[in-house]
Specification:
81% helix, 9 helices, mainly alpha
Length: 214
């Protein structure tokens, strides 16, 4: 296997993230979706997440890595994030799928920017939105139109999602330094680069919140 440990780590954490997204979306569809149309739409998005998982799983095997072993170091942190951010209702589930998952995926995009083009293209493919943004934005805006008071509650929920995501991201980075080093340019001041990274993540988060209307 010629790829660096950081590449295997990135594909491993992405694979587990996509598998987790598939599992959680199907659970939310079954327990929280208010209509059959909503359940169907969310299940379709979940299927797309599983297809992304298979792409990553297969690429890890092509690289000579054991996919289960590559995913295992990240299972505890990602499972903890999902447990700590279990949505209480449909609108919270939608905000989580869009805002919470979105900022996590932004981290992986940042890491992939410095990889071999073939790996970067794979990451771009599996991080494709697949309609998640449109689905969440449309339904959250409709929910807020019906119940404007819910906006404050959802804004607090979004802040909690992001805070928990950043906390778990720090745990992953501390445990897997090869992955963490992919987020900063070699030869530059690490702290300055990390500050720029967080500025970019914050900007994208702000755009999502604005799109939701909260």
């Amino acid at each position: 296997m010629n790829e660096s440990p950081g590449v295997v780590d990135l594909l491993g954490v992405l694979a587990y993230a996509e598998l987790s997204a598939f599992t959680r979306m199907t659970e939310d569809a079954a327990t929280l979706a208010p209509t059959l149309a909503d359940r169907t739409a969310l299940c379709e998005l979940a299927v797309a997440e599983y297809e992304h998982f298979r792409l990553l799983y297969d690429r890890l095997r092509e690289l000579g890595a054991d996919p289960e072993r590559a995913m295992q170091p990240f299972a505890e942190a990602l499972d903890a994030w999902h447990t700590q951010t279990t949505p209480a209702d449909w609108l919270q589930a939608l905000v989580k799928a869009y805002v919470g998952v979105g900022i996590a995926l932004d981290f992986y995009r940042e890491a992939a920017r410095r990889l071999d083009p073939s790996i970067a293209e794979l990451v771009d493919e599996v991080l494709a939105d697949e309609g998640r943004a449109e689905f969440a934005v449309e339904r959250v805006r409709a929910g807020l139109a019906a119940d404007p008071v819910a906006g404050g509650r959802l804004a607090l929920w979004a802040r909690r999602l992001v805070g928990e995501a950043l906390s778990q991201g720090q745990r992953v980075a501390a445990a897997r330094p090869e992955l963490a080093t992919m987020l900063v340019e070699s030869g530059e001041n690490d702290q300055a680069e990390i500050s720029r990274l967080f500025a970019r993540l914050t900007e994208e988060h702000g755009k999502r919140m604005a799109a939701l209307g909260i």
